[in-house]
User: Which sequence fits this backbone?
């Protein structure tokens, strides 16, 4: 009689823990992860097929996170792939899908066809942004990466705060916390089309007061890949 009782007790414990785990995975917060993959030359078709299989692993693992997938259309990293997840609390970042299983699936389906080139952790900055911290689902995305001179973070954010009220479209700023040389910031501007990005070029420029603080700026245009994304919210 002891074994059935133990089984029932274990089942009850799991039933109590699973909702808490799902909540921890989806609990909202200001943190984001962004990462880059470089498909091997001539291997793009197999890479995309392998990545779709990897997303199916996330689905079977009941991943509560949303994963965006973009291809870089214009920029020095043309044809690279960007994947990202947004709106996490610090606690939720401790609760991804089981890491060992996720790594095994990556090795089986993704790494034969691509190179992992970077993975960063970012903090959303609402005081200098316009939006919620999770980008809208849009066909195009302008990705601006800004590298600052050492110690310029406070002055740079103050310069951007001065122009925040003038923003007319979604513009999301993030400060990189880990994953490369700092200080580094990225801005995401989701737009419905390439022409919408070009028509908003006036908002692209950084304020003149930030000129002496910046060491390098790059601007790339990305294309959303719904089939290479997971759990996207409905388009707005």
Assistant:
């Amino acid at each position: 009689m002891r074994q059935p009782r133990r089984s029932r007790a274990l089942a009850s414990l799991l039933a109590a823990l699973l909702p808490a785990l799902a909540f921890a995975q989806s609990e909202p917060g200001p943190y984001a992860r962004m990462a880059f993959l470089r498909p091997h030359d001539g291997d793009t078709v197999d890479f995309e097929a392998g990545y779709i299989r990897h997303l199916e692993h996330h689905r079977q693992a009941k991943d509560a996170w949303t994963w965006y997938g973009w291809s870089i259309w214009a920029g020095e990293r043309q044809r690279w792939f960007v994947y990202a997840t947004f709106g996490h609390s610090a606690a939720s970042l401790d609760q991804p899908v089981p890491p060992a299983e996720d790594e095994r699936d990556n090795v089986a389906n993704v790494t034969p066809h691509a190179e992992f080139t970077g993975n960063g952790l970012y903090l959303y900055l609402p005081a200098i942004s316009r939006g919620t911290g999770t980008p809208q689902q849009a066909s195009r995305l302008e990705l601006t990466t800004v590298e600052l001179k050492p110690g310029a973070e406070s002055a740079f954010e103050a310069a951007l705060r001065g122009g925040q009220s003038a923003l007319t479209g979604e513009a999301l700023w993030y400060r990189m916390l880990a994953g490369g040389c700092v200080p580094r910031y990225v801005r995401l501007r989701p737009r419905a089309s390439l022409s919408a990005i070009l028509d908003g070029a006036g908002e692209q420029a950084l304020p003149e007061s930030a000129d002496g603080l910046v060491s390098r700026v790059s601007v790339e245009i990305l294309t959303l890949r719904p089939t290479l994304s997971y759990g996207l919210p409905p388009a707005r």
Q: What stands out?
A: Confidence is low (pLDDT under 50) at residues 13-25. The first helix runs from residue 2 to 26. Residues 2-228 form a domain with the Alpha-Beta Plaits fold (CATH 3.30.70.100).
